[in-house]
Amino acid sequence: MTRRGLVAALALGAVLAGCAGGTPSPDLFVVERSGTNPGAQLRLRVTDGGFVSCNGGPERAISSDQLIDARDIVRDLNDDDREDTPGLLRTRPSLPPRPGSQLRYVVRAEDGSARFADNAADAPEAYLKLAALVRALAKGPCGLPR
Predict the structure, then answer these.
(1) Which of 91, 90, 102, 100 is nearest to 35 (CA)?
(2) pLDDT for 146
(3) For a 10 Å CB count at each end of the chain, is N or C smaller?
(4) Rounded distance, CA 10 to CA 12, Å?
(5) What is the sign, positive or negative, of the torsion defined by CA atoms of 33, 35, 40, 41?
């Protein structure tokens, strides 16, 4: 191998090594779920790289559809398309439970946080989507019963 070829091969190897050991993807959101049902306690973290971690466990891959749903939920929570109205996370709302509530959620993302119950009155659609995604990720990639 010529000197120029060796230098090129070493440079390519350094670039590839940098890609493999690059910075981790940022979190899209972290949700803490609590409640009265067995298995309700959950801490779920979803990254923009397509991974989920449940209760501090290892990262597990999520499907492309689940990643798209997670990104859509974050956009909905932030109201990124509406400059005149602050997003749900920026206003930090707390929607209390009504009688019969079984689950409570706290969601945190870059723009703020919010609290809501599974049966909160006038819950925005983004909260309902988030609760459904949390359940799907907990039961799917994380292998939890709930």
Answers:
(1) 102
(2) 85
(3) N
(4) 5
(5) positive
Give dist(CA 146, CA 22) in Å, integer: 33
Q: Which of 125, 105, 129 is nearest to 117 (CA)?
A: 105
Task: Please return the burial class of 30, using the count of CB atoms within 10 Å of its CB with bins 0-12, 13-18 and 19+.
Answer: middle
Q: Is the pLDDT of residue 11 over 50?
A: no
Q: What is the pTM of this model?
A: 0.80
Reading the block at residue 18, the tokens are 């940098």
Of 118, 115, 124, the closest CA to residue 95 belongs to 115
50 vs 141: CA distance, rounded Å: 11
Which position has the token pair 């690059």? 22
Tens of pLDDT along 15-57?
444 444 578 889 999 999 999 888 999 999 999 999 999 999 9
Please tell me the number of Cα atoms within 13 Å of 100 on its side-chain side.
3
DSSP state of 117: E
